[in-house]
Amino acid sequence: MGDPAVTGPDSSEAELLTRVLSALLREDVVGLRTRSTPVHQQDGPWLRLSTGPDALLLPVAEDGFQCVYAARRPVLVRESDGLELTSYESVLAALRELADPEDRGGFDAFAEECRQTLATVRLHAATRAEVMARLTDEPGLGGGLVYDTLAARHDHPVYPTARGRSGLTEQQLRAYAPEFGPRFALRWLAVPRGEVTLAGKLPEFWPTLDTLGLPRLRDTHVTLPVHPLTVGALPAGTVLADRACLDVVPTLSMRTVATVADPSVHLKLPLATASLGLRNKRTIKPGTLVDGAVGQRLLEAVIAREPRFRETVLHADETTYAHAGHELLAVLCRRYPAGLDDCTVVPLAALLAEAPDGRLVIDGLADRFYGGDPLALLDAALTLLFDWQTTLFGYGIALESHQQNVSLVLRPGGLRLLFKDNDGPRVNTARLDARLPGPWAFDDARVLGTDDGPIADVFTTITVHLCAGAYAFGLPRYRRALLDLVRARLTEAVDRLGGDAADVLRAHVLGAAELPVKAMVSAGTLLSKERSGAADINKHYTSGPNYLLPTGSSA
User: Fold this and answer.
1) How confident is the model over 13-46, as pLDDT tens digits?
2) Which domain range does residue 377 map to?
3) Which of 44, 51, 211, 223 is most buried, taking the most CB atoms under 10 A from its CB?
4) pTM of the model
């Protein structure tokens, strides 16, 4: 390949660079958004960022989804000589020079993320026909794993390098990543019994030490599963069984696997890798297991007081787990509710993915369940989603239930929602204590607070942006209608909620001039926690336009 400033990028790199530039603009990296001035040229609007004696020019288009503009073409132009920077390496190198010296290492790390992502995107393109030919259309939780495979081949609505996984080879991706739908057996550890904390009852299929060929340890040790990719990173003091045992299939999150023997049982296992940012480790802190169980009990208590959700809002059971006090020695045993065998279960993250027939997943689902009308499908989903999430807001609760953690449960005549991963909520104890006094013993001190601000931020960035707005902007043919629908259904849910909680949502969401926007690249990779000030890299924000306002859309 020639000089990237001379030879244009291929389509995969062009699409990646466009997403990267849009994300950096949205997050105002090196002042790309707030320090730039608009310039109008023959081909459309540009932003001009002064670099002292020179300037960088970015072609943009009006957008409106979390940022006024998005990158229009995959290029930065150096003003002095017209040099076009058309590779992620050259673009990030130019922006790196504008960063504070202590932040420049983050640009190098992000360039590596881009490299990994580009290799993965190309691999996805090269293997599409092969993988699609293997996929079958079956109901139930097991059949629903097909949609995880499709979603894993689709880009994240916000994070530009989401398909990259730190440090994994092509062979490892093919063997263990959800986009390939592989089947593999878990490895197992024998861990001294006294070092293991166990909550709940493990499944009947859990292998014994005898089964694993370690009978001499049956009186002193217990078994913990380990992902094959984690075997090389295990701490001392554990015994790795030679025998692999228990066939599994990866889900969209990769570190969570569905058991082939019982697809209603998923095991969440630590991975010694990162995704959605260098600092977004895929290990499992023991405290998050505690918080997932507490979160689930809290949601059960809400549903007990709100009976209209008992049949329509489903939750996986996350009260069974084990750990040995180490981020690589842990497992969550997630059990899904019964009665889903005749249903089609689809994560929201799959709706805009390309199905084997070349259409979007949502179009095929609309044909099967909503008379060919994707708007009707989204209307049903958003009506229930907003009703549930605003109800929780009234209790002072906001869930981190993004598009990977919420699934549609479909069958003729009805739609339900299925939630998982309850370990990262934000809770306003002033509201919660008035309605469901605790104690609610979350391990993570960041969960509990005494004001509505953090709750409204999570509600907006997760429920509104990722589970609603992303579909309005991701389906251009329906954008105006979907923005109207999102606004209408959220307004109805807020009105139904009533009281001062509704006033907060009107002020902070429906009527706000700007909305909080996740700054995931900055907090996850570009900046250290000390530099970003992010207490939680998944809850670090900038701001963007409010597309919920009647004039907030640039569609």
Assistant:
1) 999 999 999 999 999 999 999 999 999 999 999 9
2) 342-545
3) 223
4) 0.94
